[in-house]
Design brief:
Maf protein; alpha/beta; about 30% helix; nucleotide-binding (chains A, B); RdgB/HAM1 (chains A, B); 7 strands; homodimer; EC 3.6.1.66 (chains A, B); 7-stranded mixed beta sheet
Chain lengths: ~200, ~200
């Protein structure tokens, strides 16, 4: 495979991560914003449906193959919330700080043993907008929610996500290490395997 | 795990296959028709989206965990058709005979080497109707389309699907052997693994 694929995201960090992970397959990612594609409405009820909606929107508007991911943090003590709505947990106009504050508030009386959580990521690849057989790769990253923010790397819920294997928050991990072990890093490795198999 | 799961299908053969494959996990399947659940509209654009629509419909109407599969035959010379529309290839009221006749007609001038095809199956499991993290298992079964019907077992496109590993059509395979190697059999084995891992 040697081709350009639209990434249904405007995030420069994500673009770098996707390019770094899949460059050896001859794939070059281009962000959908470079084609003037607007974000799709994320109306799905599962991560995989949202990822498909985003990838299909990008493929439809560009006529190119498209890839999209959807991810979030799943907190056991909150019955899986914020989950699909992680980015909008504190409202459509909330930012990382507001989301983290809301999560801390929701868990304020919850002891450590019950603060288990995982980051989850689903990546889908559509060869074209009508592709009925998307390649789907998913992965989880287990941890627990801290009692206060810690660390300055990463974004989103990283300062609140304690990584037991490393004894620190995911915002305290060096970016390369985080990309290696994170939900998105793991999902990208699975996707790499599946793309190689698909030929 | 020890529980009853609604199967979003009215097919007795499918019920037997699901029960046989997952009984050792303590799962007992009940068909949605026993709860009076009507079939959902399959409005998805991919197999996985259709399977999710069907499982969610069953979970919503019963309040129970639900499983659904969506499957079809993907013919390379037809750009992947009939694919998602395999069951309705000859129209909403067409039967297996009409579908097979239409497929033979569509491929009448296509030589053997270009008659490659695969059966594909996607099975999803939703713990409840709002489950954002379905368990997804998928599998393909490679073969090619014969020039005429052969064999009396199975259903659907089985009499036209040549299985190179066995030198016969899938309708000539003994049912146990077909269940072992088929797209659905393989997907059920993957699902078994995933359910064991999920605990």
């Amino acid at each position: 495979m040697s081709q350009r694929i639209v990434l249904a995201s405007g995030n420069a960090g994500k673009l770098r991560e996707f390019n770094a992970m899949l460059a050896d397959l001859g794939i070059e990612f281009v962000r959908q914003s470079e084609f003037g594609v607007q974000d799709a409405d994320e109306t799905g009820l599962t991560f995989v449906e949202n990822a498909l909606i985003k990838a299909r929107n990008a493929a439809q508007h560009t006529g190119m193959p498209a890839m999209a991911d959807d991810s979030g943090i799943v907190v056991d003590a909150l019955g899986g919330a914020p989950g699909l709505y992680s980015a909008r947990y504190a409202g459509e106009h909330g930012d990382d700080a507001a989301n983290n504050a809301k999560l801390l508030q929701a868990l304020q009386d919850v002891p450590d043993a019950q603060r288990t959580a995982r980051f989850y990521c689903c990546i889908v690849y559509l060869r074209h907008a009508e592709d009925q057989l998307p390649i789907i790769a998913e992965a989880s990253w287990e941890g627990r929610i801290l009692h206060s923010l810690s660390g300055a790397n990463g974004f989103g819920y990283d300062p609140l996500f304690y990584v037991p294997t490393h004894g620190c928050s995911s915002a305290e991990l060096p970016p390369e290490e985080k990309n290696r072990i994170s939900h998105r890093g793991q999902a990208l490795r699975k996707l790499h395997e599946l793309l190689e198999k698909a030929g």
